[in-house]
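Sync notes, pocket subgroup
Present: LS, DG
LS reminded everyone that the earlier model was apo-only. Rerun requested with magnesium ion included. Inputs:
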Amino acid sequence: MIFKNIDSVLNTKFEGEKVNLRGWVYRKREQKKLIFIILRDYSNIIQGVIKADSKSWKEAQKITIESSCELTGTVHKDKRAPTGYEIRISNLKIIGLSEVFPITRDKSAEFLRDVRHLWIRSREITSILKVRSKVFEAIHEYFRKNGYYEYQSPILTCAAGESGSTQFEVKYFKEKAFLAQTWQLYAEAGIFALEKIYCIAPSFRAEKSITSRHLTEYWHAEVETAWQDFEGLQKLGEELISYVAQKVAKDCKKELQFLGKDPKEIAAIKPPFPRITYRKALELLKKDGMKVPFGKDLRTIEEKKICSHYKKPVIVTHYPKKVKAFYMKEDPEDKETVQGYDMLGDGLELIGASTREPDIKKIVERLKAQGENPKDYEFYLDTRRYGSIPHSGFGLGVERVVQWLTGIDNIRDTIAFPRTPDRIKP
Ligand code: 4AD
Ligand code: MG
């Protein structure tokens, strides 16, 4: 038997045609002489109806919510049906009869997290997961088209790439190891071989606070480019984000609409993006009645405020050196700041980027200031000893980008099985 997907038969050209469908029972409504079954598959939902005189009536009576089944029927346009078409079912076959499905309408968010493995079947999560898949596709495509090699770094590492305080420590035989927070240190070694590299891999952060934008395990798209200056780094960030937005706007229209987002607004996200320095951002905030002294990192409410002035993501450059990582290049014109940027979309940090500090002495000083032992970074320091070159790169939080594109409240819902400080199950 050849099965069609539901979405493909929601089409006038199938009116009156006999089709085979398969999927799961999304809803069921029983009347004396009619049973309505809403069938769900990966692509959409469709209403099915069975009459009491049908040979499948008994099967229809027996079938429960989330049972899997195969059915045959003719397609009819019907305004009252949830997706505008109805299948008049002539044959229904239960494949896997479902026990009473634990998810019903008014379940708490906490309960839905307990049964996450079942909740991912919901239309909302399914839509988000499709956007997520498209985001991965777009990132790979963008880098491949632009001559980047895919390059992997270890997940079990010996030194902190970001901040020691958010490292997950693991026992590694007789030594201590850490789960990777970033591929960056190994990427900076890799550009001496491949020059233009990227990856998408999990990163781990032992963030203790529970927020709507932090996961302890997230997917990190990172890029490192030899010879690239700060201007090139900013262009790369806006081009990548725009490429992802275009692709999602074009290929995920239905999903975006279902999630209440306008694909046209997403398609309008094209370079150039607004760029402001951290110092300028402080002035802007002051006008809005938010006083932030120079040297303080921006909090979410402040980032949101900055974003509220623009329709596109904002590139905030030149943060104070002391709030940023040891590897970010000191700005030659404003030595209190670094040649780096955060790209903010609707108050979310989508990208963290920088030109890399070339001066080995400065790197060592800053490592010490952060309480790190430079001895653990010998392999990294070698990148500055043997044919050092100007280079730059960034990290993009894939879940942050999905959250920004879909407008979903909590980052937890951008990944099938979120990892947060309060939850490791299921
Ligand atoms: O700004 P971060 O910490 O930068 C780095 O890790 C650099 N080493 C990247 C590089 O230059 N290769 O992280 C990069 C991005 C952030 O902008 C954010 O989008 C995301 O990773 N991110 C998180 N996403 C979800 N949960 C978390 N706990 C995240 N921490 C960072
Ligand atoms: Mg950052």
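DG: Residues 161-162, 182, 184, 205, 207, 214-215, 218, 220, 222, 349-353, 393-397, 399-400 surround 4AD (ligand 1) (CB under 6 Å).
LS: The chain has 14 helices and 16 strands.
Action: DG to write up.
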